[in-house]
Amino acid sequence: MRYCINCCIHLLPNDLHRQCFRCRGPDHNNQKCPVCKGENKIPLYTESKQMKWLAVLEVRTDHCESWNGFFCLRKGKLCSLMFGLIIMTLVMVSYILTGAKHGLLLIPSPFHYGAFASNPSLMDNESLSDMKDHYQPSKMNISYVKDYPSIKLIIDTITSKIEFITRHRPDLEELRKQEPHMFSVIPNKFLPNSKNPCWYEEYQGNTTTDPYATNSYALYSKRFRIIFDYLRKVFWNHLYHYKDKHYRLRCLPHFYIIGQPKCGTTDLYDRLRLHPEVRFSAIKEPHWWTRKRFGIIRLRDGFHDRYPVEDYLDLFDIAAHQIQSVLQSEAVREHGKMNNIIIGEASASTMWDNNAWIFFYDNSTEGEPPFLIQDFIHAFHPNAKLIIMLRDPVERLYSDYLYFASANKSAEDFHEKVVESLQLFESCVLDYSLRACVYNNTLNNAMPVRLQVGLYVVYLLDWLTVFNKDQILVLRLEDHASNMRYTMHKVFQFLDLGPLSEKQEALITKSPASNTRRPEDRSLGPMLPTTKAILRDFYRPFNTKLAQVLFDDAFLWKRT
């Protein structure tokens, strides 16, 4: 087939190219045609297959007159490529914007894990990336709106597997075998004239000895070194001398703010520490019971040397010095008055984080931890008081995501992470008990968002196996935010604190809220309505049980 390169850009039906818009007539001849003749006119012969337009452009040697040089040999290929990319980009942008607007984008959940490995050694040693290799990815595509019924099936499966079974409580001898050093340091009786649990411990160092030289909190964290520098300066001034021996006052907390994260525990801590009878540890959240005593500094960094109980007790030395001043005062020594100063500790992980058990305690046959944090706290101080601050678990999870996620935060990303976490949780409850899944280190590390932290009633029931109900005060952040004076009075009454002046009370109740959502997180807006509906369905049976245990329907969170 023959083409006139100068004037024909489309495939013509025969050698005479009768349809040429510039060379007309059936008797056209290239050599005689005044338009087509010349040295720069190259007749192109092809087979019977269609000749593409770009291929024709590539063999042109002269400038096109009608398009001002656009379709030329030197520039044609580059311009055509750019034109194609622009069209492709516009099409893709149009598709994405249209799909996002109508909620029709199909987003696959990247992982759907099967049953968890029953081999304890595998679960102890495998990393998150290794663990994901053991399971098969899900074939389910999750749409924000259209695939809600599929997600509902996952939630229905989880709900069908929920059983609130009372755990076996270990006896004291079992606990002693697990932590013999702790039991050798902490006595089973405390000073009778102190409301706070304290005792005197013989100090065998001399004046040149640094009492905090080996404290792990001081060694591993630069921000705590200022505190310990101060403690070193005043340490010898607070030793008690008796019969040529030196004694230091040691104290445990009288009460614990044990949870939950992103539920207002920081605000409660900041207000409560303003009360003249309340002192706290030198560090707000030591995380000793849950992490540091196992050698966990940061979860992502693995294990380090375990922090001994002495390092934890050092954190209460500033408060102990003040208690000691009261104990040595004339009012206490001669008139038999009590020390009313109490110490608190506010690690928000205490209520729920038992993830380290699998690495240190013998595994039980059901995959449940044989010992929990509350077992040891109760063993050392059975009269301890516990404060729990909760909020709507749906909103707590979104706040938790915004606070801890490092990059690419969005309502859509949160939705994907929620769905993936639900699939993982479903896979676990199909083979293990609810408690085993809640305290499963492998599962909790694999879930992109911390769904399990919002299962409040599971943790509360386990704490109630060792502590009496009147030793636990459960508050709602929603009530605290709307009527702060009322909730603070409940806390003061629960801790049996002395009365306050109007000025002191105003300082505690009217100060601005602490640890509120960051401006850059607020700008992301709320979660997607579909995500909220999914989480409402997931948490509903747990909230229902919580309301039954506490005899308070406010913990159903129906109005939030």
TrEMBL record:
Membrane-crossing residue ranges in chain numbering: 78-97
Name under which the protein is recorded: Sulfotransferase
All residue ranges annotated as the Sulfotransferase domain in the record: 253-517
Pfam families, A to Z: Sulfotransfer_1
Protein source organism: Campylorhamphus procurvoides
Keyword vocabulary terms for this entry: Membrane, Transferase, Transmembrane, Transmembrane helix
Sequence similarity: Belongs to the sulfotransferase 1 family.
GO process annotations (BP): hexose biosynthetic process
EC number, UniProt record: 2.8.2.-
Molecular function GO terms recorded: N-acetylgalactosamine 4-sulfate 6-O-sulfotransferase activity
Taxonomic lineage of the native organism: Eukaryota, Metazoa, Chordata, Craniata, Vertebrata
Coiled-coil intervals, chain numbering: none
